[in-house]
């Protein structure tokens, strides 16, 4: 009953009705204090993760607010992230990118 009275905002977790964002909205979250990224068409909010990332936040910063599939695939050093790192993404998913 409480859930009906105070519905949670869409998180993107429900594959039937993910929250949909365009690149302009994502671009508003382009700092380490507020860091969204698009990876393979899905939108993530990594704000709570940047301080936990194994490499310094400065490596993430250029990708905040942007399409970051390349960053995820290369780490900026030509090496893909591990399957374990890829598996962490779901925890930060907030939705998907709008189709163009
Ligand atoms: C998209 C921009 C990103 C860049 C440029 C980047 C870069 C890096 C670099 C330079 C390292 C250390 C070097 C190495 O381990 O080979 C690293 C490690 C790691 N990163 Fe990232 N990272 C990014 C995003 C993420 C995200 C979004 C996550 C998870 C939510 C993540 C999770 C990890 C983990 C778990 C490691 C340890 C090594 C591994 O499991 O592959 N990274 N990253």
Automatic annotation (TrEMBL):
Keyword set, alphabetical order: Heme, Iron, Metal-binding, Signal
One GO cellular component term: membrane
Protein's UniProt keywords contain tRNA processing: no
GO molecular function: heme binding; metal ion binding
Domain Cytochrome b5 heme-binding: 18-98
Family: Belongs to the cytochrome b5 family.
Protein name (database record): Cytochrome b5 domain-containing protein
Organism whose genome encodes this protein: Wenzhouxiangella limi
Entire protein: shown range: 23 to 122 of 122
């Amino acid at each position: 009953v409480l859930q009906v009275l105070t519905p949670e905002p869409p998180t993107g977790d429900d594959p039937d009705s993910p929250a949909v964002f365009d690149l302009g909205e994502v671009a508003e979250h382009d700092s380490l204090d507020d860091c969204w990224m698009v990876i393979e068409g899905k939108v993530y909010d990594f704000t709570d993760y940047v301080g936990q990332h194994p490499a310094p936040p400065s490596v993430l910063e250029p990708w905040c607010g942007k399409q970051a599939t390349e960053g995820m695939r290369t780490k900026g050093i030509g090496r893909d992230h591990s399957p374990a790192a890829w598996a962490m993404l779901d925890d930060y998913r907030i939705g998907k990118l709008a189709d163009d």
